[in-house]
């Protein structure tokens, strides 16, 4: 095979292919291998069909979505949108010189506490092996004021990337609690100023990490930003308006009514910030059946985690159907969402966890009969 026929190669290996079809077949049959265009050849004399495309990375949107479905119950729209965003983010990080890919705009996720906003993004990053940073924006301060600012965030990103600037500049940053920068956060008088500085960060800027000339700035152009918040006051206004039209089922409305960018435009959220969003995704309030499926069907079930801790020592767990239904019902009635499940499980597994290490190989009967009023 002549050098000029080596159009594609396996990343970091001496394996070459004549065309995109061969390279894609290899990537399909060799999970974990990345095939890229060979940058060391002169392609000027090669006749390349116009239909030839740069080979895709081996973790497609469908594969990312399948992974999310194994760990996250419900929230189908959000999972699909995040899977798509993460795919193109990964593609961009592999082929940053390909102008056809373009840039990935930020995604805004709206949903109540405990609906899975952070977890969806975190699991997607886990699957595509990308650095994930979670930031509570409600506690941020503007640059120049002591506290957690953008420059501190930049240093945390680089530290988490083990000072690999390429990984740091292609990470995913989840800016949580964005709604509290504009409403309902009496502890922070810096909200609008922080929002303005975050806008420049999202648009792409250089974050100064140190006064030393030996330490480069962090370029945020290729970072994927995900913004999250409940924006509950916006939803409450829509529900109030809806109730005047004859709708009285508050729980049903909270589960199915969505916030749009137009709704946010009407509030005191900067239009410049909203204009940067590539899409807005609404997470619905989880219901009893959702919590039951989280307990019994999710690979990331907190119940499985507690059971594994006990069974690691040789003990067994006996948990009946009534207990699972009771936990699901209390979680549905709570305002904590999935966090309510974890609190309940921690309480009812406490004795089993405490005694499992004694080596008595017992079976622990786990029951839960409390309701929300006396929980």
From the alpha carbons, calculate the radius of gyration and give it in angstroms: 24 Å
H/E series, N to C? EEHEHHEHEHHEHEEEHHHHEHHEHHHE
Given this structure, which CATH class of the largest domain is correct? Alpha Beta
User: What percent of residues adopt helix (DSSP H or I)?
Assistant: 40-55%
What fraction of the residues are assigned to beta strands by DSSP? Answer: 5-15%
Q: Quickly give the CATH architecture of the largest domain.
A: 3-Layer(aba) Sandwich
DSSP summary, beta strand count: 12
Q: What strand line-up does the widest sheet have?
A: 5-6-9-4-10
Number of domains: 3
What's the average pLDDT? 84
Walk me through the structure:
- With 375 residues, the chain is of the alpha/beta class.
- The protein folds into 3 domains: 56 residues, no CATH class; 225 residues, Rossmann fold (3-Layer(aba) Sandwich); 86 residues, Orthogonal Bundle (Helicase, Ruva Protein, domain 3).
- Helices cover 42% and strands 12% of the residues.
- It contains 16 helices and 12 strands.
- The strands form 4 sheets. It has a 5-stranded parallel β-sheet with strand order 5-6-9-4-10, with helices on both faces. A 3-stranded antiparallel β-sheet has the order 2-1-3, covered by helices on one side.
- The longest helix has 19 residues.
- The termini are far apart.
- About 4% of the residues have low confidence.
């Amino acid at each position: 095979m002549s050098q000029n026929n080596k159009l594609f190669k396996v990343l970091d290996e001496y394996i070459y292919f004549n065309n995109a079809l061969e390279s894609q077949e290899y990537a399909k049959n060799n999970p974990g291998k990345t095939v890229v265009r060979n940058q060391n050849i002169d392609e000027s004399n090669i006749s390349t069909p116009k239909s030839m495309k740069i080979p895709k990375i081996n973790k497609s949107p469908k594969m990312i979505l399948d992974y999310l479905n194994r760990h996250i119950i419900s929230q189908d729209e959000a999972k699909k949108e995040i899977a798509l965003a993460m795919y193109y983010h990964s593609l961009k990080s592999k082929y940053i010189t390909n102008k056809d890919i373009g840039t990935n705009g930020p995604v805004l996720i709206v949903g109540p506490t405990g609906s899975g906003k952070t977890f969806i993004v975190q699991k997607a990053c886990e699957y595509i092996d990308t650095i994930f940073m979670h930031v509570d924006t409600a506690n941020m301060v503007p640059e120049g004021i002591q506290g957690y600012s953008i420059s501190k965030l930049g240093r945390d990103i680089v530290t988490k990337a083990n000072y690999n600037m390429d990984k740091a500049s292609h990470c995913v940053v989840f800016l949580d609690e964005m709604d509290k920068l504009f409403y309902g956060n009496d502890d922070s008088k810096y909200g609008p100023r922080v929002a303005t500085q975050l806008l420049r960060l999202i648009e792409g800027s250089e974050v100064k990490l140190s006064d030393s000339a030996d330490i480069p700035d962090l370029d945020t152009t290729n970072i994927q930003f995900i913004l999250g918040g409940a924006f509950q006051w916006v939803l409450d206004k829509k529900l109030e308006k809806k109730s005047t039209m004859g709708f009285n089922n508050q729980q049903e409305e909270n589960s199915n009514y969505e916030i749009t960018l137009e709704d946010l435009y009407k509030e005191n959220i900067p239009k410049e910030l909203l204009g940067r969003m590539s899409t807005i995704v609404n997470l619905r309030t989880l219901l009893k059946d959702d919590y039951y499926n989280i307990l019994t069907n999710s690979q990331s079930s907190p119940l499985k985690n507690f059971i594994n801790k006990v069974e690691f020592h040789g003990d067994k767990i006996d948990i009946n159907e009534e207990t699972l239904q009771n936990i699901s019902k209390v979680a549905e009635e709570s305002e904590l969402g999935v966090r309510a499940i974890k609190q309940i499980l921690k309480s009812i597994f406490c004795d089993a966890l405490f005694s499992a290490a004694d080596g008595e190989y017992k079976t622990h009967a786990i029951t839960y009969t409390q309701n929300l009023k006396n929980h």
